Amino acid sequence: MQLQALHNGKVYQNAIPTSVGPPSGYGALLKRWLFEKAEREPSKPLGPFRADAAALAAPVPAAALRATWLGHSTVLLEIDGRRILTDPVWSERASPSQLLGPKRFFAPPLPLDKLPKLDAVVLSHDHYDHLDPVAIRVLGRTGVPFFCPLGVGAHLRRWGVASDKITELNWWESAALAPDFTLVATPARHFSGRGLTRNDTLWASWCLLGPTHKVFFGGDSGPLDEGFRQIGEAYGPFDLLMLEIGASDPEWADIHLGPDNALAAHRLLGGGPLLPLHWGTFNLAFHAWRQPVQRLIEAAGTEVPLLLPAPGQRVDVAAGPLNSRWWE
Q1: Residues 199-223: tens digit of each pLDDT
Q2: Residue-wise over 39-59: b if at least 16 C-beta within 10 A, else e?
Q3: Is residue 259 scored above 90 in pLDDT?
Q4: Is residue 67 part of a domain?
Q5: Where in the sequence is the domain holding 249, given as residue range(s)?
């Protein structure tokens, strides 16, 4: 039986028991934040990184599969003649305030007003590091369609996106981007909320199914085991998998994968080229900022084809593994 999102009449719940709060308590977390010595932020400025706006604006070939990582979970995908943007975040801080909160390690490699014409924006959930009102307001004025989990559409409408440009889906529901291109919302193990609210909107991963290529975008998720296996069996194998590897910690192991669990999820989903997301952009955990990618490389060995571009570097997936070592 496929994993289903649960709703108790008030809030959404994960399909399997999930701990969101730290088992050791928030006092222990505060002590770690104050006294642990990991290099959580780069000691020297990073970049500047620059995406090639002119190249990205050129027509997308009908059988292309290319990805440009713009930082964190924001990726500009070129897939089968179409452009899809995931979890657009352009603000300097992933926070309700641009005065406080996690600050970007580097400026966005592509200015928001230099984005090429998009065919879709796909959102995984409503946390501040995945849903940026500044970006949404700008993108909403372009008329691009948005695809999001249940409840997230209320945020988009509040920020000026027309209702007829918003498609909200539950897990396992699908929507046609075109007659030959389908988007499917699939399970994830996480939570949602902005400000004081929590779990009044759903979270999801996504399968992007074109006529030639298939891409899996994991959003934010902890280990899902049978759920990942079900996704792989239903919609794989994938030509590209995009999974989070950063902001992980044993204290919240149910809601973020980290490098080792990302590799386990990669196997359950059926394997394929892996583009790691959700690292190297914001200070959201206790680990050193380079640790997720260093551990991923170590644990993956030669078995998993890793795509590790610099921010803004366009990757042709068919060209094979890539290690830019930009973080060094």
Answers
A1: 999 999 999 999 999 999 999 999 9
A2: ebebeeebbebebeeeebeee
A3: yes
A4: no
A5: 123-310
- Residue in the structure block whose two tokens are 């990618």: 293
Q: Which residue type sits at 277?
A: L
**pTM for the model:** 0.97
Q: Is the pLDDT of residue 146 over 90?
A: yes
Listed residue (288, 282, 278) closest to 40, CA to CA: 288
pLDDT for position 33: 85
Residues 147-156 have pLDDT tens digits of 999 999 999 9
Distance CA 124, CA 131 (A): 9
Cα atoms in the 13 Å half-sphere on the side-chain side of 248: 26
- 320 within domain boundaries: no
Select from 40, 23, 32, 17 the least CA-distant residue to 250: 23
Domain count, the chain: 1
- Residue 33 is assigned to a structural domain of this protein: no
Query: For the chain, what percentages of helix, strand and coil (3-state, to nearest 5) are there?
Result: 20, 20, 55
